[in-house]
């Protein structure tokens, strides 16, 4: 069900009109639907019900405490890439025993904190990282549960910036180097190899690349078994795409079926790390049209949200739908929707057919994933507030940043006036 829906041209999130939220809380404003996020997570749970599994939501997609809290309550585990994300998970009531720790460059302090918290598994990406983790664990009389992230060299056919499973990406260990490294891991005091993982990219719209990657992983698990190293889980990462522009997206049930079928007969827990597919379509970014600047060659609508609030269009040329939240009397024409930041790359959408008047509120759809989490303070712009709608109620789950927060922790030189 679509939890962002229009009634007579007025756009609602669940039972709350988006224009009301923009008026009450100002813009730019992120708005999330509790029901949409819960439904997306439940689709994974339902599909995986017959198989030993752990769904580790990728925190980097949307790390608001309220979102993490909702998912924790539903039984989610978490895929983290930093200690900041671990602390967020713990603050939101998440279970450290369901956390997997990804990332190419974990340092000793990260490792120690995660060991002490008792996370489920470290997804290790290099031999050097493995040796460091072993040392940290040994020094502290702890054992690090480990999975090696292998690079299956499959082409996920997605944007080059979000393809991670090719052999020339910085991620993972070449799959043919994994066998000797598992043997090394099995010999290392302080290390217990428990799993094998990969993550081939993001916004992937076909099932085949996942199935192909899994095939490589299962073969490796069998080889390891023959050498006396028996693993407990396979982690296929995240990456299932969502529909931003009417793309056909594999159903979660079909995606999961393609992953569980090859595991039949293996006594392996399946771990998934979905991020985008849980939250992307559960959120929008609201922005106000400040000025219209029609021209001979192009019409610009200057809005109060910018690339610092929503980076995906500027970073990847990503297309996200932009719609008016209320009916308009104006005539529709073609607009470039651009923000106040001083960069030509600062746009939310090019050549959009919209009926606009200054003061109108627009919603950028599909902004629940990699939206707020990629926001910055570039141009000294405070980051937006975040709202979580639950039926007829809306909750401020993050206040708008204040101007003072922009320079908190900074100082002028001694003796200089401030
Ligand atoms: C980013 C990432 C994910 C989540 O990817 P989505 O495309 O958002 O599902 C999962 N695992 C790892 C290791 C990642 O880096």
The parts where pLDDT drops under 50 for at least 5 residues are: none
- CATH-derived topology of the largest domain: TIM Barrel
SS elements, strand count: 21
Q: Hetero groups bound?
A: pyridoxal-5'-phosphate
Largest sheet descriptor:
9 strands, mixed
- Overall 3D form: globular
Helix content: 25-40%
Level-2 CATH architecture of the largest domain: Alpha-Beta Barrel
What is the count of helical runs?
Answer: 12
> What is the C-level CATH assignment of the largest domain?
Alpha Beta
Which homologous superfamily in CATH is the superfamily of the largest domain?
Answer: Alanine racemase
Arithmetic mean of pLDDT: 96
Percent of residues in beta strands: 25-35%
How large, in whole angstroms, is the Cα Rg?
Answer: 23 Å
Helix/strand structural class: alpha/beta
Termini separation: 54 Å
Describe the structure.
By secondary structure, this protein is α/β, with parallel strands linked by helices. The longest helix has 19 residues, at 208-226. Strands 4, 14, 15, 16, 17, 18, 19, 20 and 21 form a nine-stranded mixed sheet that branches. An eight-stranded parallel beta barrel has the order 5-6-7-8-9-11-12-13, surrounded by five helices. The chain has two domains: 4-31 and 280-406, Lyase, Ornithine Decarboxylase, Chain A, domain 1 (Beta Barrel), CATH 2.40.37.10; 34-277, Alanine racemase (TIM Barrel, Alpha-Beta Barrel), CATH 3.20.20. The relative contact order is 0.16. A hairpin with an 8-residue loop joins strand 17 and strand 18. It contains twelve helices and 21 strands. Helix 2 (34-48) runs parallel beside helix 9 and helix 5 crosses helix 6. The structure holds pyridoxal-5'-phosphate. Pyridoxal-5'-phosphate (PLP) binds at residues 58, 60-61, 79, 102, 199, 202, 237-239, 273-277.
